[in-house]
């Protein structure tokens, strides 16, 4: 599904990473560990086409992404990628169900179908009955559940998660990580989690450490 080969990224004269290679199939769940400033988030952005690679190849389902124009990358992200962030990024004036339905609205899914799918996604992350709640009425752990449901409601092929439990206490973090793993596996998506946490990374099938010279497999 996803193949990275010798991907490189620099900022000016500063080399962030090079030689990044990785292959993933449907259902794979990979964690990439690294210290703050190591380039973990940048790597996700490069994979998603939000920042350009300075070298190498990124192929998604056989299609080369390096060199695609902005319009093509925008459609690719809309139709095939899901994103989960540390800061939740829910819209405060929308209900739980409306926040989750946003990716479907961007795809022009009919409202009745979008509502049905959003409500099912609410239930799948353990928030049944909270469809009409506003974000201010939810805890941090509940907000991250909303973010996971929103990332997965459109049946993405690839899910990119950037420190999704960085703002949560250990108990909520553990519950959210287990939920994330279960939901990704059930949908048959591939997922990349970037984190500085060994505990978070332990939930993945494979773990790598990002260095200037690439991805090093971890035991």
Comma- or semicolon-separated keywords:
27% strand, 36% helix, Rossmann fold, four-stranded antiparallel sheet, six-stranded mixed sheet
Name the helicity range.
25-40%
Number of helices: 7
Which series of helices and strands comes N to C? EEEHEEHEHHHEHEHEE
Major sheet summary line: 6 strands, mixed
Low-confidence stretches: none
Per the principal axes of the C-alpha atoms, what is the gross shape? globular
How does this model look, in words?
The protein is built from 7 helices and 10 strands. The relative contact order is 0.22. It is an alpha/beta fold and 219 residues long. The model has no long low-confidence stretch (mean pLDDT 92). The longest helix has 18 residues, at 170-187. Helices cover 36% and strands 27% of the residues. It has helices at residues 40-47, 70-80, 96-106, 111-124, 140-152, 170-187, 198-201, and strands at 2-11, 14-24, 29-33, 55-60, 63-64, 81-85, 158-162, 190-195, 206-211, 214-217. A hairpin with a 2-residue loop joins β4 and β5.
């Amino acid at each position: 599904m996803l193949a990275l080969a010798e991907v490189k990224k620099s900022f000016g004269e500063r080399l962030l990473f090079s030689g990044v290679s990785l292959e993933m199939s449907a259902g794979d769940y990979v964690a990439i560990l690294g210290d703050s400033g190591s380039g973990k988030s940048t790597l996700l952005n490069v994979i998603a086409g939000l920042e350009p690679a300075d070298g190498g190849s990124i192929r998604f389902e056989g299609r080369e992404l390096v060199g695609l124009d902005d319009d093509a990358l925008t459609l690719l992200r809309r139709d095939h990628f899901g994103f989960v962030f540390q800061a939740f990024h829910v819209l405060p004036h929308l209900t739980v169900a409306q926040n989750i339905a946003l990716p479907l609205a961007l795809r022009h899914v009919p409202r009745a179908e979008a509502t049905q799918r959003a409500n099912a996604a609410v239930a799948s992350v353990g928030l049944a009955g909270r469809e009409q709640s506003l974000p201010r009425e939810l805890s941090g752990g509940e907000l991250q559940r909303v973010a996971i449901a929103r990332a997965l409601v459109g049946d993405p092929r690839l899910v990119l998660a950037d420190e999704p439990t960085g703002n949560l206490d250990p108990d909520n973090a553990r519950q959210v990580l287990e939920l994330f793993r279960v939901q990704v596996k059930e949908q048959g998506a591939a997922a990349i989690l970037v984190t500085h946490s060994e505990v978070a990374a332990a939930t993945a099938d494979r773990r790598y450490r990002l260095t200037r010279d690439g991805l090093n497999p971890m035991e």
